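Lecture 7 notes: from sequence to structure.
We start with the chain below.
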Amino acid sequence: MSLIRFIFSKSFVKNVVIAIVVVAAIIYGIFIALSTYTKHGEVIFVPNFKGAKISQLDSVFKGTKLRYMIIDSLYQTELPKGIVLDQNPDPDSKVKDNRTIYLTINALQAKQVKMPNLIDLSLKQAKEYLISKELKLGDAIYVPNPYKDAVLGQQFEGNPIKPNDLIEINSKVDLLVGNGNANIRIYPPYIINLTIAQADSVISANSLSMGAIIPDKTIKEDTAHAKIFMQKPAFDGKTMIKVGEPIDIFITMDTNSIKVNPSYYALSDSLNKKILFTSPDTNANDSID
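Predicted structure tokens for the same chain:
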């Protein structure tokens, strides 16, 4: 009975009430503290940063109580370089202040890839290869050659482009392609004093093939810097050969022994262009779907 009397005594009830008040006060204090710390109920609407320039981001974010971080870049040719393309969170999203906004920008410089070697591929294979390298087929320029649709040369913006040269993605590459006609005769191009690589490019562009490479006694091992001092057949402005035929070259390291006729470079190029690009059997600037 003494326990029951104690429970219902004024002193016990008073202590219970005090305990309840203290606990309630503590809970309320914790709630207020958490609310203040997390800024419960206070949000910011995220502005639209899309289209802003990189150089303006510091001033754009100033006063917004937000931070930014550039996490990715793309390259879209139709849009200005260095602008914001996307953001996370999206515009008008509700966030607390000091939140980081993650931005994706349009790259200041286009991604570059190495130009592949498309020579001797078929036109269809070359197109697929270009696509795999994020490049595009421009014009298929047909020239007389016994091998129809065989790629004979590759050009970018009107100039030959070598394998492994850097080129921007989505660039258009033009290809010189055989038209299957082996009956046309052309002049051997003048390739005296050219390197092997330079001569190979010229020979291919004229729908001919590289023949034997014959070094003289000055050649040891490295032939990259050797020059051509003789070719067979030679260019004389009169003799013609069939497309597809080989040209043999003779190379040396002794450049003093090379006799050059500078006017022959332009003359041979001019003569063959008239034949290759005005022939009835030549379809220039065709494209493949």
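Points to note: The chain has a mean pLDDT of 84. The domain at 113-276 is CATH 3.30.10.20 (Trypsin Inhibitor V; Chain A).
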